[in-house]
Amino acid sequence: MTYCVGLLLDAGMVLLSDTRTNAGLDNISVYKKMFTFEAPGDRVIVILTAGSLSVTQTTIARLHDAIDNPNAEAESILKAPTMLRVAEIVGDTLSTVARDVAVKLGAMSQNASATMIVAGQRKGGGMRMFLVYPEGNFIESTTDTAFLQIGEHKYGKPILDRVVSMDTTLADAQKAVLLSMDSTMRSNLSVGMPLDLCVIRKGQMRAEARRIGADDPVFHKMSFAWSTALRDAFADIEI
Amino acid sequence: MTYCVGLLLDAGMVLLSDTRTNAGLDNISVYKKMFTFEAPGDRVIVILTAGSLSVTQTTIARLHDAIDNPNAEAESILKAPTMLRVAEIVGDTLSTVARDVAVKLGAMSQNASATMIVAGQRKGGGMRMFLVYPEGNFIESTTDTAFLQIGEHKYGKPILDRVVSMDTTLADAQKAVLLSMDSTMRSNLSVGMPLDLCVIRKGQMRAEARRIGADDPVFHKMSFAWSTALRDAFADIEI
Questions:
Q1: In this structure, how many other beta carbons lie within 10 angstroms of the beta carbon of residue A185?
Q2: Distance (Å, rounded) from C-alpha B113 to C-alpha B150?
Q3: Which of B35, B92, B88 is nearest to B60 (CA)?
């Protein structure tokens, strides 16, 4: 399983993904699920992935291929004229890969699909964030829905519903996504550390990414403080 | 959809269910999902249901039938020698009904199933709580897992994970299940008011049930206080 979340706020975008993949509970690995495509100062695109690893890896590889080979059939997301076109390219690539894999798996009645969050900004355009479905169609984050989630989204949604809105600061936004991830990891073993966190400040066209390891003291302190605060708040509620 | 939760604690049992059923988002109704079978002072059994309404209603009807008609083929749960036997009777009835319905639905490639929580105590026995699966098999709550959930369980699980243990008081337990339900109703429209809350004090063999309406002032106050407390706690966390 996977949990990825993206926030599109007035001040910028905040993205967080876990790194745990599993082929059965007895076969757990660490794979990056956050991919950054950057021409600093000109454009930045971050893609978060959930679903079949064979589908997501091949999709990302083909997107890279189109960037590196000007003669490739596919269009480069670093040259696309708008973020909407970027989402379309990602969607088309994803659905093509999923179809290719489906043909191979069809004989075994198995299924492989994936969903992605595509967030970014190009010079002269606004920040935009999309959720791309397995079939290649997509929806976009608006001022009414400041966040998008893929994968195991339920455990971590209540905290986001309560504290996130368009005017949330980037500092609070990082706190919110980390606490949302913390709740998810407590309840679903198939979501796990380390985490990849990325902040894109509005108009900077640059991704500030950092990895949060399993022994990160700041994350542990925050997780513990949140547990304590929740228990204290619970104790204070009158009924 | 549905959310039902049961807590088995040192001091007693606390059970909560919503009442919303839907056949599509455009067809929403209120149906009780909590059923009490009582011989006060001798035994009390409470059953919570989730899943296909045609399956759960028929199952409950057959359980009642077996109680009312001493000559019925099925065994009465009010005469079963142990709570384990009660769980077996419920499981057998549920799987039989599900099979009967499946035959009718088979032609249309549809599926109908249900899960149930069965909680109770009989004179001379301990309190016991079971989660009965659609196939009729079941698991039991132990000291390591003080709560069982059926239906839309994910949104309301983090709060239970953090605050519920065997030595939780019955007052705190009611607060915990109501806050768990509150989180679920905020995130899933198919879970809704009114709520049915039931407390069974250890050794009393009696169900104290009450309905919490959509306009219940105590519930609203608690829900508002919890939202405020969460936002305050969030603001206080340092990162």
A1: 21
A2: 12
A3: B35
Per-domain residue ranges of chain A? 3-236
| The two structure tokens encoding residue A134 | 């397995």
A237/B contact by beta carbon, under 8 A: yes
Interface test with A, best of B14, B154, B168, B178 (most A CBs within 10 A): B154
Over residues A67-76, the pLDDT tens digits come to: 999 887 789 9
Q: Which residues pair with A34 in a beta bridge?
A: A48
Neighbour count for residue B208 (Cβ, 10 Å):
14
Give B45-77 pLDDT, tens digit per residue: 999 999 999 999 999 999 999 999 988 778 999
Q: Angle formed by the axes of helices B83-106 and B53-68, to 10°? A: 130
User: Which chain A residue shows the shortest CA-CA distance from B163?
Assistant: A231
Contacts of A233 in chain B (CB under 8 A): 226, 229-230, 232-233
- Nearby residues of B223 by Cβ (< 8 Å), 6 or more positions away: B179, B182
The token duo for A30 is 């660490």
Tokens for A207? 């991704």
Closest approach of B239 to chain A, Cα-based (Å): 6
**Cis bond upstream, residue B194 (ω within 30):** yes
| CB proximity A155 to B under 8 Å | yes
ipTM of the complex: 0.84
Helices (H) and strands (E) in chain A, counts: 5, 12
Determine the residue of chain A that is closest to B168 in CA distance.
A235
Of chain B, the end-to-end C-alpha distance in Å amounts to 37
Q: Which amino acid appears at position A64 of this protein?
A: H
Instruction: Using DSSP bridges, classify how beta strands B114-122 and B128-132 pair: parallel, antiparallel or unpaired.
Output: antiparallel
Q: How far is B225 from chain A (nearest CA, A)?
A: 7
Q: For residue A217, give every residue at least 6 positions away whose Cβ sits within 8 Å of its Cβ, in sequence order, or none.
A: none
Asked if B25 is an interface residue toward chain A (Cβ–Cβ < 8 A), one would say no
Query: How far apart are alpha carbons B180 and B5 in whole angstroms?
Result: 9
The two structure tokens encoding residue B33? 């999902």
Pick one of 3.40.47.10, 1.10.10.10, 3.60.20.10, 3.40.50.720 as the CATH number of B3-236: 3.60.20.10
How many CB atoms are located within 10 Å of the residue B6 CB?
26
Q: How do residues A173-213 score in pLDDT, each as one tens digit?
A: 999 999 999 999 998 989 999 999 999 999 999 999 999 99
Q: Is the pLDDT of residue A148 over 60?
A: yes
Please state the pTM of the whole predicted model: 0.90
Angle in degrees, CA A78, A80, A83, rounded to 5: 95
Exposure letters A164-174 (e unless 16+ CB within 10 A, then b): beeebebebbb
